[in-house]
Design goal:
- It is a single chain.
- The chain is an alpha+beta fold and 519 residues long.
- It is 18% helix and 33% strand.
- It is built from 10 helices and 37 strands.
- Strands 1-10-9-4-3-2 form a 6-stranded antiparallel sheet, with no helix packed on it. A 6-stranded mixed sheet has the order 13-12-11-17-30-29, covered by helices on one side.
- α5 links the parallel β20 and β21.
- The longest helix is centred in the last third of the chain and has 16 residues.
Length: 519
Amino acid sequence: MTQLNFQPSDVPDGGMKTFEIGDQKILITRDGDEYHAYDAICPHAGADLGQGVRCGVRIICPWHHATFHAASGALIEPPALEGLKRYAVRRAGESYTVELDAEVPASPPEPVGNDTDHTVIVGGGAAGFMVAQTLRAGGYAGRITLLTREARAPYDRTALSKAYLSGKKPSDKLALGGPEWAQEHQIDLRENVLAERLDRQTKTLHLSGGETLNYDQVLVATGGTPNTLKVPGAELEGVYPLRSFKDAEALKAAAKGKHLVIIGASFIGLEAASSLVGEGGAASVTVVGQDAEVLSKAVTARVGRALRSLHEDKGVVFHLNAEVVRLDGQGRVEAVILKDGKRLDADVVLLGIGVKPNAALLADLADEKGAVSVDGTLHAAPDVYALGDIALAPSVLGNFRVEHWRVALQHGMAAAQHILQSPDQEPTSARVPFFWTQQYGKSLRSVGHAEKLDDTHVWGEPEDLKFIEFAFEDGRTVAASGMGRDAELAAFDELLRQGRAPTPAELRAGEFSLAERLG
């Protein structure tokens, strides 16, 4: 029997600590004389939770800010999809023992609702998956039907431009919840299905082929549609978007040994460049951006330059402040032509120029940009929820439409908790937007939301890839992006959630410990 032994003095009261025993890491939390033991490895991406932040009952992962309950290990915030493995802690005289061979099973939830209830989810992305996952984890007793336009069960879309394109994660490892998730959770998963019309009066969803579904509640999580390039030659073969697995699979095959031009210098474009350059298989990678620097809507020019240098060191070529006027080729793309007359050889072109919300089912509720306004429980109308990329939703900083994976998961969790009437439910107005990007093994993480970046302050040196850049609006600190300072950024996330973010004046006065400020 494998055991971990520790002394009360090893773990600070109100804190946590990771212990290593063999190749296993165990996280111990302490509140007075009460101790809890968990697997210390975050189930999302493998971070050591002991390197993160604890505040009250919340354990916050240092990498992607998944949050767990310190007294139960239950999931509070994604992007993790489940809670922590838990082990029994026993007192042995003046010390404590954890038996690592026996995991403490989670108590099954009490049934919620009845088996005649029917929840229909339209969209198999992050938000749709998380609705179904949270409903079943919370004991939902009714039927769940999940519709997806793709020929695949829900999968990790964030990996497409990163680990999948680079060859580090095979396609059979992309499925969210594992390959048998739908069967194991009694989800009626229907692939290759298009929902064409929603009749809210009769609570009926009309599908392609003439089938109809009646629902008690419907959750519309239809995501976004990639923007198209509106120039001559855009219809040529060899021009790819990157939104779905099918897109990524085609791009990966087409780019091998070829000259790749990426139009768009934001997250998708740069992640794809990182994945496909050099060992990724492309003969060359060129990025074309309209703005003066990469990631101009997310970070300041100084941070953008530091990130661009990572790419240039690997051989990626940039053309910034550039406009594409046409694509040339005979049936298949051969070159990208810029406004200044430059001709860029291109066997393959990737469009990384953003998406527009796919809100056709709720068109009468959407604004001119396709955003659907919802309340903190994601309701757009009675018994109708709008989630993810289409939702103009409340957050701790106001109402925004945010196209990020973790936000979509938050929406799915919040909507499901409302359906369950969970005592632990948190509306989106109590949640903080968060996103990350990974390029060449380096991660930039961003907390909060800033409409503009004309008032900022940096701690550390972006050029060394170890910094936090804060953004201010109307005398408030509203966002921060960082690299190499994970625990501090996790602490800022929690301070922002609590409404206790340091003021611009405090942050400009000099560096201090955000974790200590959190308390």
